[in-house]
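Reminder to self: tokens first, then the designed residues, so the page reads top to bottom the way the pipeline ran.
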């Protein structure tokens, strides 16, 4: 499997660049979850990072990605169709 070095923005992993396994299409996953074990033996804390393109890139065919911290713990990706009612 291939991996790609992806920068992380925000949260505890801010400023780090980690290798992330890519999917069959060659892109990293849309949501990256990092389980953090509790020191006292309690339930794990899960940090959620959402993939987004790096701003300012000029290349159309080659998109560079980064992960941005989602503090609410949700991916926040819902599909809203124009014909659906709120």
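Designed residues (86 positions):
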């Amino acid at each position: 499997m291939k991996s790609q070095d992806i920068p992380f923005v925000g949260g505890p992993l801010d400023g780090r660049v980690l290798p992330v396994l890519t999917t069959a299409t060659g892109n990293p996953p849309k949501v990256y979850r990092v389980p953090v074990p509790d020191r006292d033996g309690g339930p794990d804390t899960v940090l959620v990072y959402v993939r987004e393109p790096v701003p300012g890139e000029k290349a159309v065919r080659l998109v560079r990605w980064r992960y941005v911290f989602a503090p609410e713990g949700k991916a926040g990706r819902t599909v809203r169709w124009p014909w659906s009612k709120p």
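Residues 3-69 form one domain.
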